[in-house]
Amino acid sequence: MRHSQKHRAFSELSSLQNQDQFSIRVRFEQSVQICKQRSNLGRTIIIALIVGTCLVIINQLGPLLNGPRPIRLWLQIGLNYLVPFLVSNLGVIAGSRHDSR
Q1: Does the model's pTM come out above 0.85?
Q2: CA pair distance 6, 13, nearest whole angstrom
Q3: According to the model, what pLDDT value does residue 21 have?
């Protein structure tokens, strides 16, 4: 392959990568906007509170009631609420993309 062909191929590849990065950024920003909608945010917070509380009761109730409460315990409790919040938001995003097709 000659130098000019290599340069052209590299330029085309760079252009495609820039388009992909732009596309990813746009999709991320759209996803954030979908998650921030009042109806979606309210629903995902309720899901996180219900599922997170169940997980705390199942996994951390004993240590929470009976012993010292180190930072690690509080971090685990926080994750019990964060994970269902994120998963429910992913469901909202997937559902909105499916609906828009």
Answers
A1: no
A2: 10
A3: 66
